[in-house]
Amino acid sequence: MLSCLTLLLSAPAHASGLPRPLQASDFPQTDPAQVRLGQLLFFDPILSGNRNISCATCHHPDHGSSDGLSLGIGEGGQGIGPDRTAGTGADQIKKRIPRNSPALWNLGAHEVKTLFHDGRVSRSDIYENGFNTPAQEWLPDGLSGLLAVQALFPLTSQFEMAGDPAENQVAGAAYDRIDAVWPILAKRVRIIPAYAEMFVGAFEDVDDPLDINITHIANAIAAYETHQFQSYDSPFDRFLSGDAAALTPEARAGMELFYGKAGCSSCHSGPLLTDQEFHALMLPHFGPGRTRQWDSIVRDVGHMGVSDRLEDAYRFRTPSLRNVALTAPYGHNGAYPTLEGIVRHHLDPVAGFAAWRPEMAALPEVPWLGSRDFLPLQDRMERARLSARHDLTPVNLNDAEVARIVAFLHALTGTQSVKGRLERPDAVPSGLEVD
């Protein structure tokens, strides 16, 4: 037995079931001018309907490229991270964001084929434009990849960045047709002289401010996210590259469980530690849900909302685990505040579902929404439907083994990369406040 373990730990990654090392060639090259431009746009509230929220508000570098909340507080809120509040008066939020804010680590990699918890943005030629998205055939041409495509949709969401139709032109346009939003935002950006000058310098097809469109904006944001959130310098990466001493004994034992007895790698596989497929985990449902227009109850059916196939009900995309220790809470709705908690749920989803309590959710107090936050948990029939769908085989591990897996998950945290390549800008060309 000892000789087999020694062989497994010393063998090359391709021979042991471990992934190959992630490396720079797994990512597209980025143009420095576009990266710098995208950084400013990422932090600039100019792209929101009421000019009061930016991409960085919910994907902040100070919070592991997420926000530290189970369900985010979008347009109308104040502050960032766990301290974000729900706003006051006429500006107060009308609804929580239905899902947990996903981390951005390594989403620019060539290998990534689908984004969002439910997979509603993916590579496909179904609409003859290279992507399957909520914009269908109205998606703009010339987008550089999935990250650029993804960047377009929070801009159109009432509760994320657009605001209420009665408040601004952007939100009103979203109710007309989704692609009516983007020209309005592009005009806002191109009339700012500093932005216009930067776009002319960053894009070969922009000779005049009037040439700037939403595609250039999305491509710049994607260039920044690809550059800023690359991370493959963790202890685990060093181990995969041949440094046998990079992992502590406990983390190394946890790795053996992860790729062996615990079965974690059956879904969290490959260099990105995700199979990019969809699985039902039987996580408890709370919050407003991502209810489809024909649903008569508050719920979130996951990938079924995209595919319209019953077999996809309550299935969500497998997240990458790189830097996972920085991105609590966990699950598509942030149900678990700790790595130990989400690991234990995976090991026994039925027990986890039964034992889960509302106080485990990281939800800033919103008195006018509080009475509704946990109504779905009280729906007997919806609980039965959700609890009847899980794809996990229970695994019996003792407390020490769980602790080893958690130690391994901490060994997936980058070193220099998590500090970011570019710092938060002190100011943006719009002159609006930077989060």
Q: Sketch the topology as an H/E string, one letter per element.
A: HHHHEEEHHHHHHHHEHEHHHHH
- The total beta strand count reads 5
Instruction: Compute the average pLDDT.
Output: 94
Helix % is: 25-40%
What would you call the shape?
globular
Instruction: Order the strands across the largest sheet as they lie in space.
Output: 1-2-3
The class by helix and strand makeup works out as: mainly alpha
Q: Uncertain spans, ≥5 residues at pLDDT below 50?
A: 1-15
Biggest beta-sheet profile: 3 strands, antiparallel
Radius of gyration: 22 Å
Strand content: under 5%
CATH superfamily of the largest domain: Cytochrome c-like domain
What is the domain tally?
2
Report on this model:
- The structure is a single chain.
- With 435 residues, the chain is mainly α.
- The protein has two domains: 2-23 and 236-410, Cytochrome Bc1 Complex, Chain D, domain 2 (Orthogonal Bundle), CATH 1.10.760.10; 31-66 and 102-229, Cytochrome c-like domain (Cytochrome Bc1 Complex, Chain D, domain 2), CATH 1.10.760.
- Helix content is 33%, strand content 3%.
- The protein is built from 18 helices and five strands.
- Strands 1-2-3 form a three-stranded antiparallel β-sheet.
- Helix 3 runs antiparallel to helix 9 and helix 7 packs antiparallel against helix 8.
- It is globular and about 65 Å long.
- The termini are far apart.
- The model is unreliable at 1-15 (pLDDT under 50).
